[in-house]
């Protein structure tokens, strides 16, 4: 947890370009955007990956989707559309060990992903 980049962002030790924040969740622009809109949504609680989720976390993870809807509205892209992605583990492409949700929009996204 001490070495977790996203916990450092939460503590203000690493700056971020904030998009949304409340008591449970922080959202900020991805440093290496893959789309015109690429923000990350993270819970303030450190959970290293989907594999570590407990029953107690169900509300929090559901809440993140509610926040995603709010962010879409805030950015004016609810109607155009967007994609929420959470990578898990090496094959899933996860590089940061603090569960997070990519919010991607602003261009036609390919399916299936590479
Ligand atoms: P993952 O590869 O784990 O699914 O996603 C991690 C994401 O975090 C990547 O898209 C990467 O660009 C982003 N990222 C890594 N370090 C930082 C950082 O210090 N600040 C911000 N804003 N994004 C970061
Ligand atoms: Zn963390």
Automatic annotation (TrEMBL):
Entries under SUPFAM superfamilies matching the protein: HIT-like
Span(s) of short sequence motif Histidine triad motif: 98-102
GO molecular function: catalytic activity
Record-annotated active site: 100 (tele-amp-histidine intermediate)
Membrane-crossing segments per the record: none
Record domain HIT: where: 5-114
Protein name: HIT family protein
PROSITE patterns for the chain: HIT_1, HIT_2
Provenance organism: Clostridium pasteurianum DSM 525 = ATCC 6013
Pfam families given in the database record: HIT
Xref: InterPro entries: Histidine_triad_CS, Histidine_triad_HIT, HIT-like, HIT-like_sf
């Amino acid at each position: 947890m001490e070495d977790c980049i996203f916990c450092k962002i939460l503590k203000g030790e690493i700056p971020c370009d904030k998009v949304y924040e409340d008591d449970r969740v922080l959202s900020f622009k991805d440093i290496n955007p893959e789309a015109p809109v690429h923000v990350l949504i993270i819970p303030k609680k450190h959970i290293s990956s989907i594999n570590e989720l407990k029953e107690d976390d169900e509300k929090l993870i559901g809440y993140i989707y509610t926040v995603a809807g709010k962010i879409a509205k805030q950015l004016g892209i609810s109607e155009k559309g967007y994609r929420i992605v959470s990578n898990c583990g090496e094959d899933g492409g996860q590089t940061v060990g603090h569960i997070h949700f990519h919010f991607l929009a602003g261009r036609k996204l390919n399916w299936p992903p590479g």
